[in-house]
Design goal:
The chain is α+β, with helices and mostly antiparallel strands. It has a domain of 93 residues. The protein is built from two helices and seven strands; from the N terminus they run αβαββββββ. The strands form two sheets. Strands 3, 4, 5, 6 and 7 form a five-stranded antiparallel beta sheet that branches. The longest helix has 44 residues.
Length: 135
C-alpha cells in the first residue's frame, strides 16, 4: 500500500515537472515560431519592408520587428500595401505554440490564418496551418 502511494506521488511530481518544462519550452520558442512565419510571409509578398495598420499595437509591431520585418505605420487615408500583422498572443500549451498572422501584398491579394508548431526549446516543427481568410 505504501509503495503504491509513493509510486503515485513520484509519478504525479514527474508529470507536473514534464508539463512545466513543456510550458517553459513553449515560452522560449515563441520567437523562433514567429521567425518561421515571418520568413514565409516575406517570401509570399516578396519583401520585408512592410506597413502596419493604423490601429496596430506597438506590441504587434515589436513582434514583426523580431520576426525580421522593417515596419512603417500607415496613415488613416493612405493606401497601405503591403501590410502584415501577427495578431493576439501566441496560444501556449506544453511544447506547442500557435501564431495568428495576416498579410496583404496588394489590393485583393492576401491571406491570414493560424500556424501551430511543436517546440522543444527553440527547435520548432510545424504541425498544422489553418487559413481563415484569403483575398
Amino acid at each position: 500500500m505504501r509503495i503504491r502511494r509513493r509510486f503515485l506521488k513520484r509519478s504525479l511530481v514527474l508529470l507536473a515537472g514534464l508539463i512545466a518544462l513543456g510550458y517553459l519550452s513553449s515560452l522560449l520558442s515563441i520567437g523562433q515560431c514567429e521567425a518561421v512565419v515571418g520568413k514565409r510571409i516575406a517570401s509570399a509578398i516578396g519583401q520585408r519592408n512592410v506597413r502596419v495598420l493604423p490601429r496596430t499595437s506597438t506590441y504587434v509591431e515589436g513582434r514583426l520587428k523580431r520576426a525580421g520585418f522593417v515596419t512603417r505605420r500607415c496613415g488613416e487615408n493612405e493606401d497601405c500595401f503591403p501590410w502584415v500583422e501577427m495578431a493576439g498572443l501566441p496560444t501556449l500549451r506544453p511544447c506547442t505554440v500557435a501564431v495568428t498572422w495576416g498579410c496583404v501584398a496588394e489590393p485583393l491579394g492576401g491571406a491570414g490564418g493560424r500556424t501551430t508548431f511543436f517546440c522543444v526549446f527553440g527547435y520548432v516543427v510545424q504541425i498544422s496551418e489553418e487559413i481563415d481568410w484569403m483575398a
